[in-house]
Amino acid sequence: MTFKQKLLFYLRLFGICAFAAGVISVLFWLPVYMVLRRTLEAHAVSMRVIATYAGLEVLFVTMLLAVIIAVLAIVIFKPLGTMIGKMNTLLLDKSVHNGTCAKQKKTTEKYVNELLRFFSDNQQQMQMLFSISRILMSSIDFDELVSSVLATISRYFDDSYCCMINMDTDGYLKVRSNHGFSVDSMRVIRYRPGEGIIGKAYTTLKPVIINNTAQEGDGLTGLMRQRDKIESLLFIPLNVENQTIGLLGFGSRRLFYFTPQRISSITTVADYLAVSLRNIRMYEQLQSFNRRLESEVSSTTQELTHTNTRLIKKVRELKVLYDILMAISTKLDINEVMNAMMDKIPDLIDAELFHFLLADRPSRSFVSSHLMIGQKMIPTNGLIVRYDEKNILFNVFESGKPLLSNEMGSSGSHELGIPSSYSVKSMICLPVRTQFETVGIFCVGNKVGGNFNQDDVRVLHLLMSQLGEVIDNISLYHEKEKRVADLSMLQRISTTISSSPVLSITLKNITHIIAESLRIDYCVFLLYDEAVGELVTQVGFQDQADAEMKHARIYVNDQYSRSARVFREGKPFCSSSLHDLPDGQEIITEENVSTNGSLIILPLKVENQIIGVLRLGSKQKDYFNSDHLRLANLIADQSAIIIENAKLYQRIRDAVHELEQLNKMKNEFIAVISHELRTPITTISGFVNILLKEEAGKLNTKQRRFLEISEQSVKRLIEILNDILDVSRIEAGRIALHLTSSTIADLLKETVKRFRRQCKLHKIKVELNIPQPLPQVFVDQNRMLEVFKHMMQNCIKFTNSSGSITIQAFDRGDFIQIEFKDTGIGIAQENYEKIFDKFFQVDMTPARRQGGTGLGLSIVRSIVELHGGKIWVESELGKGSVFKIILPKSRMKERAHAEKDTHRR
Q1: Backbone angles phi, psi at 430, to 5 degrees
Q2: What are the two backbone dihedrals, phi and then psi, of residue 758, each rounded to the nearest 5 degrees?
């Protein structure tokens, strides 16, 4: 083959290698990019991350390959072009100057040999780069890639060793891969950044070239020269984007081995390797991220699946709980509640046994209420389980905490109060609590398909808490119904006196109400007769079974009578054994009570005084309980008050009857006396008038004065008799009003005119003040003049000489207001109401200056009130008084029209 043919062959080979490198790079990185893209998209990673980790790297590697190829082309073809030019010149000279001297021939051969050697070296470097490119594009494992690259470099560089150094996790630079160096030499390499020649190359990002290790004073170079005969060293940093990811170390046993051309080739390989290592690291990071992401997705999926399963289970539990609560919350009976719950609870927890027991505190035992085995209700017939400190039920009841056991012994059936033929292997016992106490135990046994767990306890505990609230509501409802019934009975008892206040009838009604409400066989009152010291049996609801009541009277000191003992001690007696007595309640008990039934005896107390006893009896033994005793106490207290009121009513009725008789006698006496007195007074008045008119002869001054005094006294006596008769008529309701249309102003003027002379005699100034015209009103004129007369008399009587009396009248809309104001002695505030009472005198002392019967203001108030009005006084001692009267217009007018209609009929 000629030289020209060889040259063309190698040029074609170089082009093919460059083209193959580009194609291989694209074919390698394109699938990697697609795989990364799909992986990251599948895990919802953004396109920015995809571009960062894959797309840009493909572009960067492709550009790097183009740069490397361009550099190689410049390095190789520039000298090659020069040599080819020289060679052409020589060939032309040879063809022109045939037979040139030997010197020229030698020069030509020299240039040809240099060209061949140069081309051979470049061909070797190209082969090395091609091999390394294939390695870099075919491996993605860090250690495998580094090891393969180091082996390839060692193969193309004679008498050379190489290693890879990078930062370890402890912060030291250490050898990661080695090819050729001894293990002992590599083990000592442990530097921090900046320490030694290795740390310096790492931090400065510049190669460290040592072509004669003997001239270096560094300990590492001496050690490597001693152990590995190293004469030349080269450390090139693997730098990507101003960041060192490691060092590429080379060693040779030849001096000045690392020429610029070799350093350039190795630097090119280092740059290419750095990019690849960086990409591998990024790929490893991406793979690690992908694995973590897949792990998290898998974990999250499992957790979501588990959560979804638990949610489905919770929803199912809540649905069943809701159905159970809806079924039991509408019931008002505990048996109906438990039947409804037993019917649905197998849907909540799959078990074979369900058992509900109620606690009976007085008897210290549990009573089996409902038992279901294999979804079949088993009759319990009131099975009783006694309290026992070793018993499971007792421990749960006392502690108030659930108990779970999956390893029950042979005594489990006995402790749970179920038939011994049924074996209990596992169980949960839970207390059933109301607001104030534990009322029972609920047991679940033998879970189907496994053991009980805390979730089962939690669900059942939630159900039991709701069951406790339902039981509490039922108890409250029945308690409310009982209270309503009790209050209704007490209300019926309290109304007996209003319907018939007679004591015997009242007691008979009360005993029938008590017997009907308490469903007892007899009820009777024994009232104390203080005159004889005995308890006397009253009319009641009683049966012949009450032997003690065959005797109508019981001596209170009888030592054998329970009724007498209750009366003496003031404490109730009960033949039944009662528990849970009210606070502070004490009862009388007897041992070996010989009664065929039940008996309660209660004292009847009024203001700490015992007035008798109440006996309640039933033919049923141990019939009464603490609720009966509580209610019986209320009945006894209320009955005692009713009895006392009935007695008071009787006494009041007797007193009223007696007063009516006395009042009748008084009225008859007044009528007789007034008639008998009026006749002689009239005769006396007639003869005094005859004498004053001197029809019987002339009178001297002294005689006339005596007769005038007698005339005034007779008139005063007649007024007193009239006042007494008016009061009598008012009290008897025999006074009638004759209403006519009148003017109050005219009536007041008439009154002032009548008393003008008397006021002048006492030097009292009288002033009538009517500021505006007053409307017509309907009043009895005579009775109203009588009212004004008494008011004037009262003002004159208590007003001193030189005093004044002011009379005023006003129109107050629906009322007419009249005021009598004087400057008299005044009235104390505590006497404001008393002055309108009959026979009351402001001055009650024997030396009082003013006379009078004390009937005037009483008559005034009665007449004013008959007209529908009102009178009151405003006064201050020593400053006079103001009497105010209001009379309604409409009421007087309506009454007048009504009286006219009555007269027309």
Answers
A1: -130, 140
A2: -65, -40
pLDDT at 869: 92
Q: Say which CATH topology domain 736-904 has.
A: Heat Shock Protein 90 (3.30.565)
Q: Is the pLDDT of residue 333 over 80?
A: yes
Identify how many contiguous H helices and E strands the chain contains and give both numbers.
21, 26
- Which pLDDT tens digit goes with each residue over 807-839? 999 998 889 999 999 998 889 888 888 888 877
Report d(CA 193, CA 798) in Å as an integer.
129
pLDDT at 773 exceeding the cut of 50: yes
User: Regarding predicted confidence, which is higher, 129 or 336?
Assistant: 336
Rounded distance between C-alpha atoms, residue 154 and residue 179, angstroms = 8
Architecture of domain 500-733: 2-Layer Sandwich (3.30)
> Beta partners for 250?
162, 234
Backbone angles phi and psi of 398, in degrees to 5 = -75, -40
pLDDT tens per residue, range 237-270: 988 877 888 999 999 988 888 888 888 888 888 8
Beta carbons within 10 angstroms of residue 403's beta carbon:
17
Helix (H) or strand (E) holding 183: helix 183-187
Higher pLDDT, 275 or 351: 351
What backbone torsions phi and psi does residue 424 show, to the nearest 5 degrees?
Answer: -110, 115
Fold agreement between 142-292 and 500-733: yes
Least confident of 39-43, 136-140, 461-465: 39-43
Q: Find the mean pLDDT for residues 527-543.
A: 82
What is the crossing angle of helices 626-692 and 503-518, to 10°?
160
Tell me which fold the domain 142-292 belongs to.
Answer: Beta-Lactamase (3.30.450)
**Of 863, 757, 771, 780, nearest to 808 (Cα)?**
771
Query: How far is the C-alpha of 863 from the C-alpha of 677, rounded, in Å?
Result: 26
Structure tokens given for 473:
């509501």
Q: Which two tokens stand for residue 366?
A: 């549990």
pLDDT band of 67, cuts 50, 70, 90:
very low
CA–CA dist 269, 286 (Å, integer): 25
Predicted TM-score (pTM) of this structure: 0.45
Tell whether the model's pLDDT for residue 580 goes beyond 80: no
Which has more confidence, 85 or 128? 128
What strands lie across the sheet with 190-191, from one edge to the other?
Answer: 190-191, 173-179, 160-167, 243-252, 232-240, 208-210
For residue 860, the SS3 value is helix
Cα–Cα distances in Å, from 303 out to 300, 310, 456, 569? Answer: 5, 10, 22, 77
Token reading at 489: 């009975």
Helix (H) or strand (E) holding 705: helix 701-732
E-strand stretches of 362-513: 365-373, 376-378, 384-386, 403-405, 427-433, 438-447
- Say if residues 617 and 545 touch (Cβ distance below 8 Å): yes
CB 439 within 8 A of CB 358: yes
Q: Name residues whose C-beta falls within 8 Å of residue 465's C-beta, 6 or more positions apart in sequence.
A: 433
- Give the torsion sign (CA, 648, 654, 657, 662): negative
Is it the case that residue 516 has pLDDT exceeding 50? yes
Length of the chain: 905
Are the beta carbons of 558 and 527 closer than 8 angstroms? no
Query: Two tokens at 802?
Result: 């030189």
From residue 218, give the alpha-carbon distance in Å to each of 69, 248, 662. 38, 18, 149
| Chain position carrying tokens 């008798």 | 612
Write out pLDDT tens, residues 141-174: 778 888 888 888 878 787 788 999 988 888 899 9
pLDDT in tens, 26-64: 555 555 555 555 555 554 444 444 444 444 454 445 545
> What average pLDDT does range 543-572 have in this prediction?
76
Q: Which CATH architecture has domain 330-481?
A: 2-Layer Sandwich (3.30)
Domain ranges of the chain: 1-138, 142-292, 330-481, 500-733, 736-904
CA distance 125 to 76: 10
